[in-house]
Amino acid sequence: MDAVELARKLQEEATCSICLDYFTDPVMTTCGHNFCRECIRLTWEKAKGKKGRRKRRGTFPCPECRELSPQRNLRPNRLLTKVAEMARQHPGLQSRDLCKVHQEVLKLFCEDDQSPICVVCRESREHRAHRVVPVEEAVQEHKVGPGMRGCRGQ
Protein backbone atom coordinates (compact mmCIF):
# COMPACT_ATOMS: atom_id res chain seq x y z
CA MET A 1 0.00 0.00 0.00
CA ASP A 2 1.55 3.31 -1.06
CA ALA A 3 1.45 6.54 0.96
CA VAL A 4 -1.46 8.03 -1.00
CA GLU A 5 -3.57 4.89 -0.52
CA LEU A 6 -2.69 4.79 3.18
CA ALA A 7 -3.64 8.47 3.54
CA ARG A 8 -6.94 7.82 1.75
CA LYS A 9 -7.71 4.88 4.09
CA LEU A 10 -6.93 7.04 7.13
CA GLN A 11 -9.24 9.73 5.81
CA GLU A 12 -12.00 7.18 5.19
CA GLU A 13 -11.73 5.73 8.71
CA ALA A 14 -11.80 9.22 10.25
CA THR A 15 -14.94 10.32 8.36
CA CYS A 16 -18.50 10.22 9.71
CA SER A 17 -20.91 8.57 7.25
CA ILE A 18 -23.67 11.04 8.17
CA CYS A 19 -21.96 14.44 7.79
CA LEU A 20 -19.10 13.19 5.57
CA ASP A 21 -16.62 15.25 7.58
CA TYR A 22 -13.97 14.19 10.09
CA PHE A 23 -15.47 12.87 13.32
CA THR A 24 -16.27 15.34 16.06
CA ASP A 25 -16.85 13.70 19.45
CA PRO A 26 -17.26 10.21 17.90
CA VAL A 27 -19.48 7.67 19.63
CA MET A 28 -20.02 3.96 18.94
CA THR A 29 -23.45 2.33 18.75
CA THR A 30 -24.07 -1.15 20.20
CA CYS A 31 -23.62 -2.63 16.70
CA GLY A 32 -20.11 -1.15 16.48
CA HIS A 33 -20.65 1.68 13.99
CA ASN A 34 -19.26 5.15 14.72
CA PHE A 35 -20.81 8.58 14.22
CA CYS A 36 -20.32 12.13 15.48
CA ARG A 37 -22.36 12.45 18.68
CA GLU A 38 -24.34 15.38 17.26
CA CYS A 39 -24.94 13.64 13.90
CA ILE A 40 -26.42 10.51 15.48
CA ARG A 41 -28.44 12.60 17.94
CA LEU A 42 -29.99 14.64 15.11
CA THR A 43 -30.61 11.52 13.02
CA TRP A 44 -32.39 9.82 15.88
CA GLU A 45 -34.27 13.03 16.72
CA LYS A 46 -35.74 12.96 13.19
CA ALA A 47 -36.61 9.27 13.64
CA LYS A 48 -38.63 10.09 16.77
CA GLY A 49 -41.21 11.81 14.57
CA LYS A 50 -41.72 8.70 12.43
CA LYS A 51 -44.15 6.55 14.39
CA GLY A 52 -44.27 2.81 13.98
CA ARG A 53 -40.64 2.50 12.96
CA ARG A 54 -39.30 1.42 16.36
CA LYS A 55 -40.13 -1.88 17.99
CA ARG A 56 -38.97 -0.81 21.45
CA ARG A 57 -39.20 2.58 23.07
CA GLY A 58 -35.85 4.34 23.42
CA THR A 59 -34.21 2.38 20.60
CA PHE A 60 -33.28 3.71 17.19
CA PRO A 61 -31.96 2.13 13.98
CA CYS A 62 -28.27 2.44 13.15
CA PRO A 63 -27.90 4.52 9.94
CA GLU A 64 -25.38 1.96 8.63
CA CYS A 65 -26.94 -1.45 9.37
CA ARG A 66 -30.43 -0.60 10.74
CA GLU A 67 -29.81 -2.64 13.93
CA LEU A 68 -31.70 -1.13 16.86
CA SER A 69 -29.53 0.60 19.46
CA PRO A 70 -30.58 2.16 22.75
CA GLN A 71 -29.80 5.86 22.65
CA ARG A 72 -28.36 5.78 26.16
CA ASN A 73 -25.78 3.10 25.19
CA LEU A 74 -23.63 5.32 22.98
CA ARG A 75 -19.99 4.88 23.96
CA PRO A 76 -17.32 7.55 23.32
CA ASN A 77 -14.61 6.35 20.94
CA ARG A 78 -11.45 8.06 22.18
CA LEU A 79 -9.17 6.24 19.74
CA LEU A 80 -11.23 7.47 16.79
CA THR A 81 -11.08 10.99 18.25
CA LYS A 82 -7.27 10.78 18.01
CA VAL A 83 -7.37 9.31 14.48
CA ALA A 84 -9.70 12.08 13.30
CA GLU A 85 -7.43 14.70 14.85
CA MET A 86 -4.38 13.22 13.08
CA ALA A 87 -6.26 13.18 9.76
CA ARG A 88 -7.36 16.79 10.31
CA GLN A 89 -3.74 17.87 10.87
CA HIS A 90 -2.20 15.89 7.99
CA PRO A 91 -1.59 18.36 5.13
CA GLY A 92 -2.21 15.77 2.40
CA LEU A 93 -5.62 14.89 3.80
CA GLN A 94 -7.28 18.27 3.66
CA SER A 95 -10.56 17.89 1.76
CA ARG A 96 -9.56 20.76 -0.49
CA ASP A 97 -6.61 18.64 -1.69
CA LEU A 98 -8.85 15.82 -2.95
CA CYS A 99 -11.01 15.75 -6.06
CA LYS A 100 -14.66 15.95 -5.03
CA VAL A 101 -15.62 13.55 -7.85
CA HIS A 102 -12.88 10.90 -7.70
CA GLN A 103 -11.38 11.38 -4.19
CA GLU A 104 -7.92 11.53 -5.80
CA VAL A 105 -5.16 13.99 -4.92
CA LEU A 106 -5.31 17.21 -6.98
CA LYS A 107 -1.90 17.00 -8.67
CA LEU A 108 -2.67 18.86 -11.90
CA PHE A 109 -3.87 22.32 -12.86
CA CYS A 110 -6.17 22.87 -15.86
CA GLU A 111 -5.06 26.15 -17.41
CA ASP A 112 -8.21 26.40 -19.54
CA ASP A 113 -10.55 26.15 -16.53
CA GLN A 114 -8.09 27.70 -14.05
CA SER A 115 -8.75 24.93 -11.53
CA PRO A 116 -6.87 22.04 -9.91
CA ILE A 117 -7.81 18.55 -11.17
CA CYS A 118 -6.84 14.94 -10.46
CA VAL A 119 -5.25 12.49 -12.91
CA VAL A 120 -8.63 10.80 -13.51
CA CYS A 121 -10.23 14.15 -14.42
CA ARG A 122 -7.33 14.74 -16.84
CA GLU A 123 -8.46 11.74 -18.91
CA SER A 124 -12.14 12.73 -18.85
CA ARG A 125 -13.84 14.28 -21.87
CA GLU A 126 -14.17 17.53 -19.97
CA HIS A 127 -10.39 18.09 -19.68
CA ARG A 128 -8.83 15.81 -22.34
CA ALA A 129 -8.24 18.62 -24.85
CA HIS A 130 -7.27 21.24 -22.24
CA ARG A 131 -3.81 22.53 -21.36
CA VAL A 132 -2.82 20.84 -18.09
CA VAL A 133 0.35 21.34 -16.00
CA PRO A 134 1.49 19.98 -12.63
CA VAL A 135 0.12 22.05 -9.72
CA GLU A 136 3.65 22.95 -8.58
CA GLU A 137 4.43 24.41 -12.01
CA ALA A 138 1.21 26.45 -12.00
CA VAL A 139 2.07 27.79 -8.54
CA GLN A 140 5.55 28.81 -9.72
CA GLU A 141 4.15 30.52 -12.82
CA HIS A 142 1.66 32.38 -10.64
CA LYS A 143 4.44 33.53 -8.29
CA VAL A 144 6.65 34.67 -11.18
CA GLY A 145 3.79 36.20 -13.15
CA PRO A 146 2.86 35.77 -16.82
CA GLY A 147 5.06 38.64 -18.01
CA MET A 148 8.18 37.20 -16.37
CA ARG A 149 7.95 33.61 -17.71
CA GLY A 150 10.84 34.12 -20.14
CA CYS A 151 13.13 35.32 -17.34
CA ARG A 152 12.92 32.25 -15.10
CA GLY A 153 16.17 30.52 -16.01
CA GLN A 154 18.32 33.65 -15.86
From TrEMBL:
Question: Could you tell me which species this protein originates from?
Answer: Phyllostomus discolor
Q: Does the keyword Cytoplasm apply?
A: yes
Q: Where in the cell is it found?
A: Cytoplasm
The record's section on PROSITE patterns has: ZF_BBOX, ZF_RING_1, ZF_RING_2
- Identify this protein by name: RING-type E3 ubiquitin transferase
Keyword annotations from UniProtKB, A to Z: Coiled coil, Cytoplasm, Metal-binding, Transferase, Ubl conjugation, Ubl conjugation pathway, Zinc, Zinc-finger
Q: Where is the B box-type domain?
A: 94-135
Instruction: Please list the reactions this protein catalyses.
Output: S-ubiquitinyl-[E2 ubiquitin-conjugating enzyme]-L-cysteine + [acceptor protein]-L-lysine = [E2 ubiquitin-conjugating enzyme]-L-cysteine + N(6)-ubiquitinyl-[acceptor protein]-L-lysine
**UniProt xrefs under SUPFAM superfamilies:** B-box zinc-binding domain, RING/U-box
- Which residue ranges does the record assign to the RING-type domain? 16-66
Q: Which residues form a coiled coil?
A: none
Q: What class of enzyme is it?
A: transferase
Q: What is its EC number?
A: 2.3.2.27
Under Pfam families, the record lists: zf-B_box, zf-RING_UBOX
